[in-house]
Amino acid sequence: MAARAAGDRITSQPATRDLPRTSETRIARTGRIAGLDGLRAIAVLLVVLYHFAPVPLPGGYLGVDVFFVLSGFLITTILLAERDATGGVSLRRFWRHRARRLLPALAAVVVVCVAAVAVALGIDRIGGASAQGSLWSDLLVGVGAQIAAAATFTSNWLTVLTEQSYAAASSPHLFGNLWSLAVEEQFYLVWPLVVVGVIGAGLAVRKAAYGAAALALGSAGAMALLLDLGSDPTRVYVGTDTHAFGLMIGAALAFWWNASRQGTRPAWWPGRRPALAAGFGGALAIAALAALMPWDTALPYRGGLLLASVATAAVIVALVTVPATGRALDAGPLRWIGERSYGIYLWHWPVFVILATGIDGGRLRDATWPTLVLASVITVAVSAACYRWLEVPVRRRGFRAALRGLVDWLYPVEHDRSSLQAARRRRAAVFGGTVAAVLALAASAVAEAPEQTTLETQLDEGAKVAAETSASAAPATTPSAAATAVAAPSPSSGASSPASGASSPTPAPVVEVPDGARVQVIGDSVTVGSAGALAEALPGIRITAEVGKQFATGVDQVARLAGEDRLRDYLVVALGTNGRVGAENLERLLAAAGERPVVLVTPYGDRSWIPGAVADLRAAAEAHPTVVLADWNAAVARDTSVLGPDGIHPRADGVELFVSVIEDALERAAAL
C-alpha cells in the first residue's frame, strides 16, 4: 500500500531531474514530517494483530483506512510539490517511481509463497497423500487468477467476484490481503490525471480540496447505501467506489496543507493548540474503534470507517502543524517498522496462511501460539531482507542496477580484471538458475491447481443429494410410514424438554422414532455439506438446503410448503449461519408449522450474529412445547477440531456429529 510504500522525497528540482527516492515523508523545504513512519507502523500493527488474533482487536482492520488516508495525503503532496517546483507534473516519472517501489516486493511475495506451497504439497505427496495434502491443494485453488489480479491491480474486484461463491470465500485466498493494494494502485493510475487536469484548468487549490472532500462524502455515502444488512459486506468493503473516501480525505488534506504553505491557509486550519487537541482526539478515536468495531456489523460501513479516516486526518494535521508531536511516534522501533510496513503488509498474510495450514490444519482463527510467533518472526525477517536487498536498491538504482548489485553481493569474487567478466557470468548463471527454479515451482503449482476446494466439492456433492431427496420425496404426511424402535432419552414434558437438548441422554423406555419419509429439513450450507450423511441415516428424508440461505428465506419456504400441504410431520430447521434469526421470524415459522414438532438446530461460527441467533433459538425451545433444540453449537464448542478451516463447515467426523445431533433431537421430538 502506498503510504506503506514510502518511496519519493518531495523537493524542488528541475523537471529534467528525477526526484530523489528515499522517503515520501520528506517534504520540500520543510524537512521530514516526523511521525508519519510511526503512524504507518501503528497502522500495519493493527492490521497484522487483527489477522493473527481478531478476537481481542475486532476493529484492527481499520489500519487499512489509516494507510488510505496517508496514501492520499502523501501522493497528492508529491504531485503538488512537483507542480510548485517545476510548473508541471511528469506522469511518466511518477508512474515509474510507483512501479519501482511497489512491483519488486509484490513479485517476490507472489513467487516465493506459491513456490513454498508447491514444495509443501510435493513433500506431502512423497510421504503419501493425506488430509493435509488437500489443505495445501485448497490454497492453490484460483491462485492463477489471484496472480493475474495482482499483476493488473484488480485484486479487490477478484475478491468481489469470488465472494459470489460462499465456499470459495470460506477457504482463505493466499493473497487475500492484496485487495487494498489494488485500491491504492487504481488510485495511482487515475488520481495523477485528475491532479494534472486541476493544474491545467487553473483551478484554485482550495477548490480542488473541496472537490476531493465531496468525492470522499460520495464514496462514504455509496458504502452506506449499498450495504445490505442481510448479506456479507465484502462488496462495499473492498470496492474502489465505496472505499475510496480515505484516499480522498487524505488528498483534500494535502490540497489544504499546500494552500497553507503558500500563505493562503484555510480559515478553519487550526493553530498549534487546537491541532494538538485534534490529533489527540483522533488518536483516541482510532484506538476506540479498533477495540470496539467488529467488521461484520453495520457500524463500520455507516460512519465507522469514515470516522476512522477523519481521525487519521486529524492526527496528520497535528503532525504537520506541530512537528514536535511526531518525535514520540518516530521512536526507533516504530520508525523501523514504518519504513518496512509495505513489506510487512505484503508478507504477513500469506506467511500466516501457510504456517496455519501446516501447523494448525488451516484453522486461522484458532491458530496456536507457535504459529503466531513463527509467523511474526518470519514476516519481520523476510520483510527486512526484502527491504534491504530488493526494495531500496531498486528504488534508488533501478531494476537492472539493483539486480547486478544483488548478484555481486550474493556471489562475491576478487576484482581481478582478467577474471571478473567470467566470474560475473558464472554468478549470473547461478543466480538465474536459482530464480528459474523458484519460478518453475510456482508455475507448476499454478498449472496443476485444482478447480475446486475440498469444501466446494463437498457442497456440490451435497447439493446433488439434496436435489435428489426433493425430487424423489414421498408425500408430505405419511401416517403409515415405518417407524424405528430405539432406546431414546426420557423426554421431559412441556417447555423444559427442549432445553435439555445439550445434556447427556439417559436410558429410557423404547420410543418410536420417525423415519426419514416423515422428516423435512430446511438448511444452509452446513446442511448441504451434510446432505449425504443425512440421507444415509434417514432414508426418504427431504432436504431443502442452499448455500448462503438466510433464516427469513427459510421461513418463507416453510410457509409456502405448508400452504401447499407439502410440509412433513417433522420439521428440522438448520439456519442462522448467514445472518440473524429474530423472534419475529421464529413466530412466523412456528405459526406456519402448526402443531407438528419443530427441531431447531443452533448454528456455530465466529460471526457477530451467531450468539444472538443461538439465544433466539434456545429461547424459542424453552417457550414452545412443540419445539426441540438440536444444540449443534454446544456440541461443536466441546471439540472444534470437527470443523474445517473456516470454522463453520464440518469435516467428515463433524458431519457424523451433525447428523447425530439431529437424530437425537428427532428422538426427543417423537416422544412429545
Give the biggest beta sheet: 5 strands, parallel
- How does the helix and strand content classify structurally? mainly alpha
| Physical arrangement of strands within the biggest beta sheet | 6-5-7-8-9
| Total beta strand runs | 9
In the predicted model, the low-confidence regions spanning at least 5 consecutive residues are: 5-31, 476-503
Euclidean distance between termini CA atoms: 60 Å
Task: Describe it.
The protein is mainly alpha-helical. The protein has two domains: 26-447, no CATH class; 454-670, Rossmann fold. It has 28 helices and nine strands. It has helices at 36-52, 63-86, 91-126, 131-140, 143-151, 155-162, 166-170, 178-201, 205-226, 234-238, 245-261, 272-292, 304-321, 326-329, 332-339, 341-360, 369-397, 399-410, 417-447, 454-471, 496-499, 525-529, 531-537, 551-563, 583-593, 610-623, 632-637, 652-670; strands spanning 26-27, 31-32, 483-487, 510-514, 519-523, 542-545, 570-574, 598-601, 627-630. The strands form three sheets. A five-stranded parallel beta sheet has the order 6-5-7-8-9, with helices on both faces. It has a two-stranded antiparallel sheet with strand order 1-2. Strands 3-4 form a two-stranded antiparallel sheet. One of its GO terms (molecular function) is acyltransferase activity, transferring groups other than amino-acyl groups. Its EC number is 2.3.1.-. It is a multi-pass membrane protein. Residues 466-505 have a biased composition (Low complexity).
